[in-house]
Amino acid sequence: MTLTPSDASQLTRGICALAPIVPVLVIDDITSARPLAEALVAGGLPALEVTLRTPAALDAIAIMAQVPGGHVGAGTLVTPEDVRAAKQAGATFGVSPGATDELLKACEEADLPLLPGAATASEAMRLLARGYDMLKFFPAETSGGAPALKAIGAPLPQITFCPTGGISPANAKSYLDLPNVICAGGSWVAAKDKIAAGDWSGIETLARDASKLGTSS
User: Fold this and answer.
1) Beta bridge partners of 23
2) CB burial readout 127-156, b (16+ within 10 A) else e
3) How far apart are CA 194 and CA 210, in angstroms?
4) In 3D, which of 72, 67, 97 has the Cα closest to residue 86?
5) Which CATH class for the 5-211 domain?
6) Where are the domains of the chain?
7) Distances in Å between the alpha carbon of 134 and those of 7, 24, 93, 107?
8) Is it true that the peptide bond before 139 is cis, omega within 30 degrees of 0?
9) Which residues are catalytic?
10) d(C-alpha 12, C-alpha 115), whole Å
11) What does the alpha-carbon distance between residue 143 and residue 135 come to, in Å, rounded to a whole number?
């Protein structure tokens, strides 16, 4: 079975809608994988993006995939080999900084729902033409931030986004208030110092605070 782009977008949109923030995780120590996932899920952030930037990433995905209530995806998918490795490790969705035909095809053939990256209207339109209408806006802040994403949304209202890159508690709401934003990706909820210290309750608190960002103030 080959996953269609429209089905992939429907699946990733469902995952993105689980919480206003998707933690973007860089894991160096495999022993932190399970308690980190448990803390984030307990704090109300069940969709987790583990970036393939460290040697421990694939093993971390395999461990986190066993945490009840979690939905673990692989980020920084760049090549078809990344896709196959992520799928084998247990990732239930993928995230990419951009998109190539080879990467899209690999995800479709692997039945791995992909959140492909786009930073311009042309990139978004190209993905929409292929059937993808749930995209990652990356890098968000350096691509013009919330004002740029609002402007892109005016002529392309059928596309929804998960902005990532430079998102913080200070600016997250400016993105989440946009009608074309489902959620945002952020790394602050898994602060490196708290992971190193094994401060899982502190991370759970950060996650709980982040889970409330989508509510009206």
Assistant:
1) 186
2) bbebebbbbbbbbbbebbbbebbbebbeeb
3) 16
4) 72
5) alpha beta
6) 5-211
7) 10, 18, 13, 15
8) yes
9) 49, 136
10) 6
11) 15
For residues 215, 185, 144, 126, the Cα torsion angle rounded to the nearest 10 degrees is: -110
pLDDT, average across residues 129-153: 98
Residue 158 dihedral angles phi and psi, to the nearest 5°: -80, -5
pTM for the model:
0.96
Tell me how many degrees the CA angle 160-177-17 measures, rounded to the nearest 5: 50
Cα separation, 98 vs 116, in Å, equals: 6
> Could you give the CA distance from residue 77 to residue 86 in angstroms, rounded to a whole number?
8
Name which of 33, 77, 41, 49 is nearest 162 in CA terms.
49
Which tokens in the block code for residue 198?
A: 């094994």
Q: Which residue in this structure is represented by tokens 């995806």?
A: 73
> What are the tens digits of pLDDT across the range 95-109?
999 999 999 999 999
